[in-house]
Prior knowledge:
By secondary structure, the chain is an alpha/beta fold.
Amino acid sequence: MIKKHRAFLKWAGGKYKLVDELTKHLPSGKRLVEPFVGAGSVFLNTDYDEYLLCDINQDLINLYEVVKNQPDKYITAAKAMFVEQMNCKQAYYRVRAEFNDTDDPFLRSVYFLYMNRHGFNGLCRYNRKGGFNVPFGSYKKPYFPEKELWYFSEKSQNATFKCVSYQQAFAMATAGDVIYCDPPYAPLSSTASFTTYAGNGFSLDDQALLARHSRHIAHKQNIPVVISNHDIPLTRELYHGASHATVQVQRNISQKGSSRTKVDEIIALYDHLYQDEEY
Length: 279
């Protein structure tokens, strides 16, 4: 059995549980392009020659660049934050305030991992002024992901990181690439809301535009695109013309680990066989 690799970040909607099924639907190619890289579980568990990993969250991309290029320095500095005296509200809110006040890329990368592991549910959320505002999580002993950091740094030597929109990521794709999209998911119900990862929401219009971009690049440039999302009537309609697979994924619906439910997710593939006059 092939060993699966976990991301070093906790991440809402992370693909670790889905990666075995996802990889069955990813076409072969020289380079994998991810416009919504998130925690990078798909990157960590695939074997392409090269990767173009993009996200609109500048802190996330900065962190990945630091881990790629300065793993020794980074791991030493980050590990020093994972001590008992730093696992309290006072320390957490002090670090959060310092994070929001500094522009230093290395310091922000160290604080980002600390807040990711000590903050509530591993959320990544910003206020309208761009300030990180996730509350303290009250965990007994937050895990320091040292071996995951080393693996990420090693594998990322074949990766290029870009802080760009998904449209810009699509524009960078060339022949021989495969695109995998893991956008903020469409809401399961009309009352559900999107999690804002980078200060910008992902609206239903964005969902439709992403589907259109995917159809267009598959048909016009012969670059296959795979998209994950909730399997609901809306996404079935949006991804018309694509081949569809459905998988069940267990999701936590509250902070209590016992409160879990299984939801259907869709894996849509657009490839060169896609034919539609409307793109």
